[in-house]
Amino acid sequence: MKFGTKVIHAGIEPDPSTGAIMTPIYQTSTYVQAAPGDHKGYEYARTQNPTRAVLEKNLAALENGADAICFGSGLAAMDSVLKLLNPGDEVIATDDLYGGSYRIMTKVFGKYGIKFQFAGISNLDKLDALITPKTKMIWVETPTNPMLNIIDIKAVCDHVKDKNILVCVDNTFASPYLQNPLDLGADIVVHSATKYLGGHSDVIHGAVITKTAELAAQLHFLQNAVGAVPGPQDCFLVLRGIKTLHIRVERACQNAAKIAEFLNQHNKVSQVYYPGFESHPGHDVAKKQMRMFGGMVSFDLAGNSEVSARKVLSGTHYFSLAESLGGVESLIGHPASMTHGSIPREERLKVGLTDSLIRLSVGIEDVDDLIQDLDQALALV
User: Fold this and answer.
1) In this structure, what DSSP letter does residue 35 have?
2) Catalytic residue among 79, 89, 95, 170
3) Any catalytic annotation for residue 170?
4) Which residue from 224, 317, 351, 375 has the highest number of Cβ atoms inside 10 Å of its Cβ?
């Protein structure tokens, strides 16, 4: 089954009681049993819900995994993955990553005796220098947020495959349409399904997909024990969004490529971060492990002025100034004060995240309108 068919059919059947083609929203907290333990596979909705079960089957198929586990948000999904660790364990993570990921690692799990090291792990020698007998997980974002660096997933997985180290990839920026980390050797994939999977900026959701049934069983246990589960309405919305995932992401990628070229030639722009450029240091790896180069573009203004950046951020019409990404509408953001505000400034600057950096989540509008919108906003500088 090819991807465009999977998004619509994988794990999804018409409702057996009515024939409804859309998966019903099973808005219930509990299920009637004929006798204690004699039930139809469902006991309590924190543990199981039929709408959620269909979504989990669909997500597992999209990422070519053994199973999927859904959560109330992307950070709730990440929280359960990190709960696979024990005090004293060490994690090596991408040094350029989402601010919420950095916060949960350093401010939440750090105080429980888990050590986190942040590094540019595209350099395998640098990765080697950080690995110790206590290293139990490598956390990869690729493309990274917001600098759009590329990590060679297969190279990292091959490098540690005999070391009893889990490789977890946050695949939110790419989506399953562009990249399948489990096929490249990763053990776990995490998504903020709020973004491209949902695709319509109307739901908060998270998902984990595993390579093995054993890992899935551990995460299903945590899903039930901790209880950070999504409601059936949220699962329905993500299922609805997934049906157009391939079409939406393809259009966003096409638009992003044209916008990146426009910005790269603009005299008010000093640097454009976009893996589709041949000059991008991760271009060849991105070309190898991704189907297209994504719908995200980041750029710095000439002079690196935060004041100028704020004029641009407040001057667009079709690019809405807002948190998040991956919806059908285009968004513009200021990572230093928004998505990455929880990362200390000195750490942000180490990876090139300046106070003037602007991040675009390119939507599926007419690209000429989007370019015109950016052009008139840049004219305000």
Assistant:
1) B
2) 170
3) yes
4) 351
Domains and CATH numbers, the chain: 3-242 (3.40.640.10), 246-378 (3.90.1150.10)
Known catalytic residue: 112?
A: no
Write the pLDDT tens digit of every residue in 280-307: 999 999 999 999 999 999 999 998 889 9
Measure CA of the first residue to CA of the last residue in the chain; give whole Å. 50
Active site residue 26: no
Burial of 129 (0-12, 13-18, 19+ CB in 10 A): exposed
Return the minimum-mean-pLDDT range out of 2-11, 33-42, 213-222, 366-375.
33-42
What amino acid is encoded at 201 in this protein? Answer: S
Alpha helical stretches, state H, 31-162: 50-62, 74-82, 99-103, 124-130, 153-160
Choose among 244, 269, 246, 245: nearest CA to 259. Answer: 269
Q: Which two tokens stand for residue 364?
A: 């599926």
The most distant pair of C-alpha atoms in the chain lies apart, rounded to whole Å, by 73
Pair of tokens at residue 322: 């807002």
CA distance 224 to 14: 27
Cα gap 71→78, rounded to integer Å: 9
**Pick the catalytic residue: 42, 46, 183, 240?**
46
Per-residue pLDDT tens digits for 104-162: 999 999 999 999 999 999 888 889 999 999 999 999 999 999 999 999 999 999 999 98
For 71-109, the pLDDT digits (tens) are: 999 999 999 999 999 999 999 999 999 999 999 999 999
Residue 179 Ramachandran class (φ > 0 left, ψ -120 to 50 alpha, else beta): beta
Say whether 26 sits in a helix, a strand or coil. coil
The strands making up 115-119's β-sheet, listed across from edge to edge, are 67-71, 206-210, 188-192, 166-170, 135-141, 90-94, 115-119
b/e 350-370 (16+ beta carbons within 10 angstroms → b): ebebbbbbbbbbbbbbebeeb
- Name the active-site residue from 195, 248, 268, 359: 195
Catalytic residue among 6, 26, 52, 98: 98
CB neighbourhood size of 135 (10 A): 20
